[in-house]
Design a protein that fits this description.
Elements: E1 2-8, H1 14-29, E2 33-36, E3 39-43, H2 47-59, E4 66-72, H3 74-78
Antiparallel strand pairs: 1-3, 1-4, 2-3
Length: 101
C-alpha cells in the first residue's frame, strides 16, 4: 500500500515558513519521497504502519493550511497515468528487501 500526503500550507510570515519546513522535514525523515512539490508518498508494508503514519501526520500537522492523506493499493498506484512528464526512478521505493551479508 502507499500513503499519499497532499498539502497546501501558507508561507506568508516567517512562522508560516518555519511550520512548512518543519512539516516537510518530518515527512522526509519518516521515509516519504516527493512526487510533486506538495505531494509526498510512502510505501507501507502492513496496516499497523498505516496507522502509525496517520498518527504521525495528525500529531505533526501545521496550525494553518490544508493537509490531506490518501491510502491506495500498489495496483491502484501502478495504474497512475502520466499525462506529461515521467516517473523518476532515482529513489528505490518498492518493497523488495536487500540483504547484504
Amino acid at each position: 500500500m502507499r500513503a499519499l500526503v497532499f498539502f497546501d500550507l501558507p508561507i506568508k510570515t516567517n512562522e508560516d515558513k518555519r511550520n512548512y519546513r518543519h512539516f516537510r522535514k518530518i515527512l522526509i525523515k519518516n521515509g516519504f519521497i516527493m512526487m510533486q512539490k506538495s505531494v509526498y508518498c510512502k510505501l507501507m508494508t502492513t496496516p499497523s504502519v498505516e496507522n502509525s503514519i496517520k498518527r504521525l501526520i495528525r500529531e505533526n500537522k501545521p496550525p494553518d493550511g490544508i493537509v490531506q492523506m490518501l491510502t491506495v493499493t500498489e495496483k491502484q498506484f501502478s495504474k497512475m497515468e502520466f499525462v506529461i512528464g515521467s516517473y523518476k526512478n532515482d529513489v528505490i521505493d518498492n518493497d523488495n528487501r536487500l540483504v547484504i551479508l
